[in-house]
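How a chain folds remains the central question behind the approach discussed here. This step matters because it turns folding into a mapping between discrete strings. The sequence in question and its structure tokens are set out directly beneath this paragraph.
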Amino acid sequence: MHAKKLTIWVNKMASLCQPDRVVWCDGSDAENERFLNELTATGKAIALHPEKRPRCHAFFSDPSDVARVEDRTFIASKKESDAGPTNNWQPPRKMKKTMLKLFKGSMKGRTMYVIPFMMGPFDSPLSKIGIQLTDSLYVVVNMRIMTRMGQQALDRLPAKKTFIPCLHSIGHPLAPGEPDPLWPAAPIERKYISHFPEKRLIWSYGSGYGGNALLGKKCLALRIASKMAKDEGWMAEHMLILKITNPEGRHKFFAAAFPSACGKTNLAMLVSKLPGWKVETIGDDIAWISLDQEGRMRAINPEKGFFGVAKGTSYASNPSAMRAVEKDTIFTNVAITDDMDVWWEGIDGKPPAHLMDWKRADWTPDKETPAAHPNSRFTTAITNCPVIAPEWDDPEGVPISAILVGGRRPSTIPLVHESVDWTHGVFMGSMMGSEVTAATISTMLGIVRRDPFAMLPFIGYHVGDYLAHWLEMAEKTEASKLPRIYYVNWFRKDEHNRFLWPGFGDNIRVLKWIFERLDGTAEAKETPIGYLPTRNAIDRSGVNIKNADLDALLTVDPAEWQDELKSINHFYESIGEKLPDALTDVLKHIQAQFEDVAGNQGEGS
């Protein structure tokens, strides 16, 4: 029996959207196979080569629907001040009025699928149940991979007593006899991804792609969950979780927050270049963190799959990800080879002489347009990953010893530095971001786009209150039980635009230093920005990293940092009066230390 509240809500939404029929998804293998066969038969999906890619399928979106649409993503909190300066705010009544008009009759000629799903391991006290209604079968088959979807989630509804309602429509009702487009989508101005934090409610209309439509991901697991976490005393973070084991067999768990294009998935699945050191993954994108009875932070991965960027993924850059997508995977907006395999820019080998590109058109290497969309994706189960840690599904979560933050910074930020204390670590997380390069907008070269804890697009409430919540978590436990916080930067360059650090599998050398710092065995030197490794503290065995390069990687230049602190202060001013004073105090303290350094240098000259 479905819970009475759930049945009432489903019937109410069906009356609003007016689908031809309602189907409750059970998440079974047979159901999934039936859905994929239907998608293939109607041309919406292409079945890939059964031997090269067993049970894999490719989808191709409308060119207007290829990524998250931040300017069409809204936080409909009761007060505008609760949404803050980083969110698009709409009054809840106005937002609902607008969307009710759009949803009315939006599923005519279609099927409404009811997707019960759980974010987090079954029976974890932190896990949440969501119910997504959608008219997109693409969404259904993706949600089955990304979440614990189906009857098992529904069976746990009585224990959880509540669910997060998620309503989604592609916004393309069908008149009798009207042909269905291969990828229906509404125009950009009619796309809405709306969150109602106080009501724990998500409404999404007009887009069938990724985080706009797979509502368990960014919408629930970050935007709504971040507000729930604030209210309930835990944390919902845009973080990978990894397990690192040393040659003696001892292990620790790290969480890490990086903006996009900063090697997040590669770090989660890192293949170590140091003998005896091993990295396994708990998750590559989201962490829900709470304090256990002993006051230690524990994290669960609320997801059950990877929704990864295909472009640039290869056996050279990320062999574990490539092995994960060898079977039972959904590919979106990649190119297709003549023998029905997948291809994208950055994959191993030379481009084939002929492909079908992501727009389903013929493609040859002399074409100026990319064969795969830059945001092409793969959706695959976490259990497909060859380096999955056995603890990935532990209902109690894993104890976090260190939190890493970082960004793509060609200058200023050293390879790695350690916070002095928790408050200083929160300051480091608040200032993180990536520098705009020539690959983006040339008029903004050198500008740092701040992205606190890589959460700026995903905080479901005011960014100042979010940073305050990080500080408040420390008040609930002892300082000795908190993870240490580290800022890493794999992307520092020299004056010739050459990367100083080899990156990829050699990042284990930085993880090793962090591991040994936690053990109290690694050397460090104190600087105004925190503790840095000494030159000999970084293990360089088996790799040729010159002393001059390592010295440059570990340099803290006072002049560059004076500019950095001014930039951080400017960002802080944009947050407004809700910015915690403690973070401003850290900034002023670091500023004073650099002034002392400059003064001492002046006296000695």
